[in-house]
Amino acid sequence: MKYEKIVLNQERNVTLTAMVQGVGGEFRALKARPAVLILPGGGYMFCSDREADPIAMPYLKAGFQAFILRYSTGEHFRWPLPLEDYEQAMALIRARAEDWHVIPDQIAVIGFSAGGHLAGAAAVLAENRPNAAILGYPVLRRETAMEIGVEIPGIAELVDEKTCPCFLFATRTDSVVPIQNTLDMLNALNRYQTSFECHIYGYGPHGFSTGDPSVLGSGVLLPDRAQDWVRDSIAWLRDLFGVFGADGQAEPVCRGHVTDDAEAWLSLDCSVSRIFGNSEARRVLQELLAVMREKLVPFTPDMSFEDMLQALGRMTLREILSERQIETERFAEWDEALRRIPNI
After folding, report:
1. Measured in Å, how far apart are the chain's first and last C-alpha atoms?
2. Beta pairing partners, 33
3. How many CB atoms are located within 10 Å of the residue 342 CB?
4. How far is residue 60's CA from residue 67's CA, in Å, rounded to a whole number?
5. Phi, psi at residue 240, to the nearest 5°?
6. How many CB atoms lie under 10 A from the CB of residue 24?
7. Distance of CA 318 to CAs 251, 267, 269, Å?
8. Domain 2-249 part of CATH 3.40.50.1820
9. Residue 338 contacts residue 266 (beta carbons within 8 Å)
10. Is 28 helix (H, G, I), strand (E, B) or coil?
11. b/e code 33-48 from CB counts within 10 Å (16+ = b)
12. Helix, strand, or coil here: 257?
């Protein structure tokens, strides 16, 4: 393990700590690793130690490279300085990806409370956006920020088609950051068909970190299962980036967005309504459409084929063809044909 602490801004006490694991050698085919950039909470007054090293350890154990950013807080806080600190840190990690054995397009940001706000801001505002965001009991509503006396932008209202996949966790009874912060973000992500996973535990305090008694202390009312967010988020990142190990890295099983409807070109992973609403796509897929007319059984006897397509419109074409075992051996051919057609 290689440790390196870099001062990004001496005047504001901004530092980036790198915890870098080896590759190659005994790790054989593993040439680089996904990474996490951790943003501790602390109400923008300080960076919590409980949301720094204790967070890095399980991700390191799971094989990720880990970085901890201590951004501008307290007397040095003024928005958007923390976001500028994040930009500098992420740009440095990607610039030194080879040295630090990092896969530059597989970096997740992990933030808690105010750090969750900063992680959310990175996902919706940053020039150097992360590839995934894990948001723990995050401050995402401007109203909540104003209650704790900081002037920062709301996050959920800024979600767009470029926002990365998100993993969120919180407790229903959090009295510091109301659960509505998380719910607003879920609604926004859903609106843009961005992939997400969310765990809202039935009760527990704000700021529970990993939930482990070694970090939280004893006597805190928190369900044991709240500790599962760590394991679940690691599994989610593996789904998103691909399982990796000494034998190399597998293909991802989770897509960043539910469909490719926001992409510049069509594909089998666009929705049925998007594809067959495009006249050029209908022309190119005439042969496939003919097969679908034969094999797609209507929901009711009087339902037309076009009505059937409309009813299935939110599904991707790949999903429908896979489910009904239609022309699956020609997926690459159909996908290649669609990827020549502008998504307009």
Report:
1. 49
2. 102
3. 9
4. 10
5. -80, -40
6. 12
7. 17, 9, 6
8. yes
9. yes
10. coil
11. bbbbbbbbbbbbeebb
12. strand
* Residue 84 CB partners (closer than 8 Å, separation 6+): none
Question: How far is residue 111's CA from residue 119's CA, in Å, rounded to a whole number?
Answer: 5
Confidence (pTM): 0.91
DSSP string, 277-310: TSHHHHHHTHHHHHHHHHH---SSTT--HHHHHH
**Amino acid (1-letter code) at residue 31:** K
For residue 218, the model assigns a pLDDT of 78
User: Could you tell me the mean pLDDT of each successive run of 10 residues in the chain, 344 residues long?
Assistant: 97 98 92 97 96 98 98 96 98 98 98 98 97 98 83 94 97 96 97 96 96 86 96 98 91 91 94 95 94 89 90 94 93 95 93
Query: Which two three-digit tokens encode residue 120?
Result: 């959310």
Instruction: Quote the Cα angle for 334-335-336, to 5°.
Output: 95
Q: Tokens representing 131?
A: 């590839």
The DSSP H or E segment spanning 109 is: strand 102-112
Torsion of CA 226, 227, 228, 229, to 10 degrees: 80
Using only C-alpha atoms, what is the Rg of the chain?
23
Per domain, the residue ranges of the chain are 2-249, 272-338
